[in-house]
Amino acid sequence: MKLYFSPGACSLSPHIVLREAGFDFTLEKVNLRNRQTASGVDYTTINPKGYVPALDLGNGELLTEGPAIVQYLADQAPQSHLAPPCGTLERARVQEWLTFIGTELHKSFSPLFNPAASDDSKEAARANLARRLPIAAQALDSRPYLTGETFSVADAYLFTVLTWAGLVNVDLSPWPALRAYQERVGARPSVQAALEAEGLKR
Ligand SMILES: N[C@@H](CCC(=O)N[C@@H](CS)C(=O)NCC(=O)O)C(=O)O
Fold it and tell me: Does residue 7 have its Cβ closer than 6 Å to ligand 1?
């Protein structure tokens, strides 16, 4: 398998999951400004959506959309317990978090990285984050990971999104549970290895 990624982008989430599950995989960096891959290919010829992540499954299939990719990976490696079995309420809880992170957090950070976004849309995004981050913080007040005692694919995604706070001046200090969670997840060997491979480890 090959993961198309951009350093520190949301592709970090499936990158962490690939390592958590112990898959054999390669990485190819995508320059999101000119949509060229590191090997000089027009990325839109590989993934017409033009954004990362995309996972080349090595059998002619390309899988896109982070939440779909991480769940596919978890299901291919059930021994890693990165997601409960399909069809269970526990699995729906992981999907509930993945959807929350994608639609309420990830997409609220997006305008803050967009130089073309208006000040109004940036303010609205910050206000939305201020309303939504406490929801994650409250869950993590009483448990180490989003769905309980076990690290899941939702944690790979939340960790990834939280790394953006420092880049766009979103202050997480009102939520000590989020800061502790960043430390806890950031210390996992898979996360350390993914950050290193993406050139993000200081
Ligand atoms: N719906 C997609 C969104 C992916 C996404 O927002 N990717 C960003 C990086 S975090 C990107 O590649 N942006 C460049 C662009 O949209 O041109 C998913 O959940 O995987």
Answer: no
Mean of the per-residue pLDDT values for the chain? 97
Residue 201 has pLDDT above 90, yes or no: no
pLDDT at 27: 98
Query: Ligand 1 pocket, 51 CB below 6 A?
Result: yes
Residue 47, phi then psi, degrees to nearest 5 = -125, 100
Is residue 63 predicted with pLDDT exceeding 80? yes
CB 24 within 8 A of CB 77: no
Q: Residue 93's pLDDT band (boundaries 50, 70, 90)?
A: very high
Q: Which residues of 154-176 are buried (b: 16+ CB within 10 A; e: fewer)?
A: bbbbbbbbbbbbeeeebebeebe
Domains of the chain: 2-80+191-197 (3.40.30.10), 89-188 (1.20.1050.10)
Residues forming beta bridges with residue 4, ordered by sequence position:
28, 54
Q: Which of 3, 52, 71 to mutate to test the pocket of ligand 1 (most atoms within 8 A of CB)?
A: 52
Query: Using a 6 Å cutoff on CB, does residue 50 contact ligand 1?
Result: yes
